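Recall that a protein's primary structure is simply its ordered list of amino acids. Everything else, from secondary elements to tertiary packing, is in principle encoded there. The following example makes that idea concrete.
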Amino acid sequence: MRDGVRLSADVFLPDRDGPFPTIVTRTPYESGRDVFLDVGAYWSRRGFAFVAQDCRGRFESEGTFRAYADDPTDGYDTIEWVGGQSWCDGKIGTWGRSYGGLTQWLSAPLAHPQLTCMAPHVICDDFYSDCHYIGGAFQLMLSLGAAVIWQTNLATVVGRQSRHIFQNRRFWRHLPLIEMDELAIGRRVDYWREWLAHPTYGDYWKPFDIRGRHEAITVPAFQQCGWFDPYTGAGFRNLTGMQQHGPNQKAREQQRILVGPWSHEEPEFTSLGGRDFGPGSLVDIRNEEHRWFDWQLKGIDDGIGADPPIRIFTMGVNSWRNESQWPLERSVTTPLFFHSTGRAASSMDDGSLTTDPPGGEPVDRFAYDPAEPVPTQGGVLSVHMMTAHAEEPLEAGAVDQRDLEARGDVLVYTTPVLADPVEVTGPVSVVLFAESTAVDTDFTARLVDVHPDGTACLVTEGILRARYRHGLEQTELLASGVPEKFEITLSPTSIVFASGHRIRLDVSSSNFPRFSRNLNTGEDVGTGTRMQVAHQAVLHSESSPSRLLLPLIDSVVRFT
């Protein structure tokens, strides 16, 4: 590297004379792992050189690992080194999932002249609001898991035996959060503490942003995402950002994105979270990447050049289709309004969603106690760790929500039975009018597909920390008992709610341990220890029309 630090790379070459187009991946997860050996063999047998490199300070590489900080220049310098090797023909693509995706996006704006294309999968574009702080709420399970993995190794975190150390009820409930690094691995992790020391979007986070930097990225990217992975919104933002601001025609016109009913890992099964999406839902990701790199690095076009930029899987009808832009131009944002007689927290049959605005209706009330938070159960997850609430690691996806909906701190609003299928494809959001006795609290929203037998399959979810209701760069505490407007962004989705099904929205104030508990006291997220119960009220009236906003495609909502 430019500062003299040496990074370790494993090089796989075809068993014939070169030079070869080359694919590079950079990882903190050990380049000698089975997955990289398999991938290296795959590409070298197909005429590509493949380079798997340990990030700075990880495994065989020298230096100190600092999450994200050195990856832009280290990525550039790695491409410089690869491009100078006799076995490289000068055309270089990058590849990788998760952290292996962010290394690509971080170095891409430096625009190395030999960088030809990228394949960054399942990764954020904004390390604050799309990764560590979703809606201002600290994403505890991901952040702690990353901090531990990047200081130890993957097996330490995902192995079942880790429940003896930190994946247990005592550990997850520890306060203050700032100490959890030492509690898990016996030493401080600088970047863990930096993340907690910067709970508001600002100068610490801005250097890692990809948003607003697309005009400096000169190459096309093939992205793979999943409806149950947290970074699909980022994938679409990067797609549209490059289409609109890429500095050359190739960068603007050759972007591709593939989104299926998956979570963070490469798809292996047709079901996720108990819902089966059919045999057609599986895609050979490696084959799609092969088509991509053949096209970009070898000039072989098997028809991929004429493919539309977007390929998405629509759940419910379980079918694939191509699209040309995002959000879809033909989508119609349609509100479904909250209604109840004030018992949405105590009766799953009281709260309703309809297309009619509310009139004069009583509020729905519940008490959020951070000592007994609503547990994470399925949903939009990128990690599968043991928690305080389950004997098995958490599973992402469409997990049945009925046991959570029976809690007294979860409000449930459900449509009547649908007369016709309703397609929802695009960004989903909730406009919530609410008040709290706390100076700070969270509000969560989960969109649910209710089957005729009552099964309540989670579709997508979101959260907002109240102090960030006016923006992520500033905080403003609540005044007790004063109604406020909260706009909650849910992860995008594509699903057809079948006729005979019902659309449901669950509203509460916690999703733990995916997100840290809001202690309701306004204390600092990293050092706070004092908890209090927040008494919440959700309003749905003519002046405070709480509503779910759905992007409908060629559909109207009609009930039987």
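Residues 363 and 539 are 5 Å apart (CA to CA). The chain is about 20% helix and 25% strand.
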